[in-house]
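Researcher: Going back to the complex we discussed earlier. I've cleaned up the inputs and rechecked each line, so this should be the final set. Can you rerun the prediction on the complete assembly and write out the structure?
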Amino acid sequence: MEKRFLEHDTVEAARKLLGMYLCRVTGEGLVSGIIVETEAYLSNNDPACHASRGRTRRNATMFGAPGIAYVYFIYGNYYCFNVVAGPEGKGEAVLVRAVEPAGGLELMRKRRGEGCPDKNLASGPGKLCQAFAIDRSLDGHDLSQKPLYLAENLARPDMLTIQSTPRIGISSAQDKCLRFIVTGNKYLSR
DNA sequence: GTTAAGATCTGCT
DNA sequence: GCAGATCTTAACG
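Model: Rerun complete. Updated structure for the full complex:
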């Protein structure tokens, strides 16, 4: 993966991540999906961002190099997966909220529960991490390498229609349109 | 040491 | 459509 596009600007990174492949390799096999929903979290004037009140133990990873993973635990049950972006040391990241399942569907169903409809396999931050077996052992991992990596996708022109909306699940800064989605895709979280 | 709140999901009404 | 589960993190004493 060419990751220079990540360090220039976090909002631009959030838009460009749409349509890319996210791939995960474990002993059980390979799963992959196409990113269809992201949110940008900025350091300047963005109270919803974990890094807005300075560097802490939890968010230290956000201040690392662009292109690594920031994984954290929320609500006692679920993980959220972010891609660190912006200049190193600034504390910005892109939350990946949903992917369109592409490969390893059976393995995803096994992790999410038998009988889980395809559109619910990874349509939300917590579900995505379950389907991809992402946990805090991957916090700080370089996303250009196995066992978790991003890859270009040049074959999906329908992924180019991008829409921005207010972010979801936060209680502050709801006026900012920093959520980016592939318009009309069936696998969005909502 | 204690406490309140959170970038969510599932199940039940 | 809405409330509950569940525990880590960070702020405060």
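Model: Worth noting: DSSP finds four helices and nine strands in chain A.
Researcher: Good, that matches what I expected from the previous run.
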